[in-house]
Structure formats: structure tokens, C-alpha cells
Amino acid sequence: MAIRRGRGVAAINYPTGMNLGGDPTQALVHSTPTGNFMVTLSSVDLGQGMKQIMAQICAETIGVPTDRVIIDTADTDTGPHCMGTFASRGTHRAGNAVIQAAKEARQVMLEVAAEELEVNASDLETDGQGNILVKGAPQKSISIFDVALSAHFKRGRSISGRGMFLIPRSYPEKETGAMKPSTCYAHACTVAEVEVDDETGEVTVLTVKNVFEIGRALNPKMVEQQLVGGSWMGISHALYETTEPYYPNRDHGGTDFNQYLMPGPGDLAETEIIVLERPSADGPFGAKGPGEMCANPQIPAVANAVFDAVGVRIDTLPITPERILRALKVQAAS
Amino acid sequence: MAKVPVQFTLNGAEKAEFVDSGTTLLHALRDKIGDTSPKGGCHQGTCGACSVIIDGELRLSCLTLAETCNGAEIRTTSGLAEAGVLHPLQRAFLDAFATQCGFCTPGMIMAAKVLLDHTPNPSREEVVEALSGNICRCTGYEPIIQAVLRAARANSQNAA
To answer: Is B114 left (phi over 0), alpha (psi -120 to 50) or beta?
Structure first.
């Protein structure tokens, strides 16, 4: 009986979005009378930071500072349609919709500015600080504040835009079954080191090293926090969490938080996160969906590490001490 | 059923309420007094989201009866900022990206405050121990541990 050490590696491809009769998200953008921009969405910020990312995307497209953008994700009764914040689709689908809406709003904004400055709209550019300048003659300029006032009170224009991003439904080919169920794959690879006590079946994750390829990180600090949390969740899925430990049998399933195991702050593995940025062709500013995929590669990596340590394949999650001991018993008998 | 009078100070302000006997402090704070910074997560003392400070000690407000708090001095996360300036712990949680959905954050900050009040320069192990009664679903804890250590450093620099 001994503590045995093992190392496992796993790599994953993970899609963005899904394929249930099409995957649409809609966005609306309009300016306030003072040149702030309101983005209306039905997509929900769960804490992953969608409001911040959508504000950055809108601001970058229109050419204003991020703090000039207000995101309203409040209400599916009144907001434009979104399939929802799931399937790692929020940044990608809503982001593309916001870009389209913001482009349309920007065009109206430039047309109003062109009338005020008596130039062609195509000769105008934004400075990212809230001003519109004539290309090559930046001394001729107007603030977006003044453009919005003019649009509202003088020219009767609505500085607004509509955005709709749709991944159409993909049907399988009858002969081959080939289809495109999702788009924009993110990638990840994890190496996990574990110790397995072959007497108790207990697994301790020592280190977990992750590389994530997530398109472009639109907000690197927020990407990092999601990946750090996701890596921990992956270990939690691998070793701890279940509502039905004997699925499909409900026996011994937890009924409340007391009986739902998750690792606490004392159970953390030494964690390393490396982000590779390979901008995606169809993502907003090259982004992909890092949401769910960041909690996936740890699971097979831990399973492989357990195999490396004690030579048993656990193919049911979570990898509990009981499952390991039962497998060791079968191994010893054969 | 007769209501029970309860009087205590909340973040330095006198509060008086009539509550049903058996009302939890969490319910009294959130639904009677309107301080919604303590969160009701599990309502059975497991998750720590409802943590408040009573007479300097960390307490689970979901397991504390309001009527036992007569004369107590109660502190919650909503009372930490002074004159619009965030408490060093709140600042550190922001700077360390230690919050995502935010539901555990007030309880985490209360637990961390009691730790730093007693142990201004804690080790990582002491931080982990202090946070061990609080569950977080999003962050993986590491950013929270780092935030508490960061707040401790900021405090010791201010004191120096």
C-alpha cells in the first residue's frame, strides 16, 4: 500500500454555440442625446463579464471610450432576441451582433457629423476619445456630444443601429451524416499531476498546467479569471461533483449543499494558465468562446493521471475513492 | 403571534425592529431593514454567503436568531466603504479580479475582515483557513486568496 504518483495529459477542441434550429442573437444600439451609446441585449451577464466585453466591442466599433457605452441586458420581454448565455456563445454571437448594430449607428453618426462639418461622411474618422475628425485635417472636428445633440434636436436623426448574427441550422447530409453543428473551435491542453492513495482511493491533484487557445482575449484579465476558475471547476467535475453518484439510480444523491461536494480553498492544485491567441476568422475582433471549454481538459487529464498512477481506467465521473478502490480490486483479481 | 422587539447597531447606526420570534438575523437584515449585502445561499450554515460580524466575531446570519442580537454591534459589507471610498478589502477584491457572479463576495469579505482584524499579516495558510467556511462557485478561490493577501499588504504599508 502506497501513495502513487501519476501524470496525465489531455487535449480538447471545443465549439462555440449550438445547432438547434439556428443560433441567433440580436442587438440594438442607440445614442442618448448627449452622445452616450446604449446597447440593448437579452443576453445575460452571469458574472463572466459580458457587459464589459459588449461595452468594449461597441466602443471599439463606434470609436468612443468604453465608459461612454451603457449595456442593458435586463429583460427578455423588452430586449431584442437572444438564444441565451450558454454554449460558450455569449461573446461570439452577441459580440458579432453588437458590431453590426454599432456599425450602422456609427454610419448615421458620421452622416450627421458630415452635415455639421459640411464634408463627406467618408472623409471622417473617429479619434476614440469622443471626437470626429476630418481625415488629414484634424483641426476640423466635432465632438460626438455635439453630433448627438444635433441629431436629436436639429436634424431629426436617430443615431442607432440594428444587429443580428445568425448561425443557420445545419442539417446532416443524408449519405454521410456530415454536418456543421457548431462553429469557431477553441482548443486547450492540460497536464495534471496526481497522487493516488491505493489504500484509500483518495486522489490529490498536485499540479495542473493548462494551455488555452481562445482566439483573441478581448479583456485579458477577465479571460484569465475565467480560465483560473474554469480550471478549478474541471478538477471539481473530475473528482467531486455529482448529484447522482450511482446514476441513473438516485440512491445516495445529495439533497442540499451539505451533500454536494466541491473542493474548497484548502484543496487547490498548483495551477498554471497559458493563453494562446489565434484570432478567429468569424469572431468579434477575433474572439472565440472560452467559457465552458476551460473546465473540460482537466477531466480526462486527471483520469489519465490516475491511470498512470495506479493502472486503472475510471470512465465514470466523478473519479471517487470508491470507484478507484473497486477498479483496483478488479485489477488485483485478474 | 406576538412580535419581538429587537435593537442593535448596524454599521454604527441604531436599528430597532419588531420581528416574529424565530426570525433569522439574515431575514431581519435583508427583508426588514433592507441591508441586502448578506446573501441567502443555503440557509443552513454551509455556504457562508450570509456571513456578518457580530461584536467582532464572524457569524452566519442565517443561523442566528434576530432576537439574540439585542444590544449587539453588527457589521456587514455594505457598511465597509467610508464616504464613498472603498475599504481596502473591497479595493483588493476588485484589483485581484476576485469576484465573478458576486454572490459569495460579501461573505468572503466579512470572513477576510475578521481575519485581518485579528491577524493583520496572515500567511497564505491562515487566509485559506479563514475562508474555508465560504463557498465560491466561480473563481476557483485563488483570486480571492490573493485579494486578501493583497489587502493585508496594503494595510501594512499604510500603517508603516
So the answer is: alpha
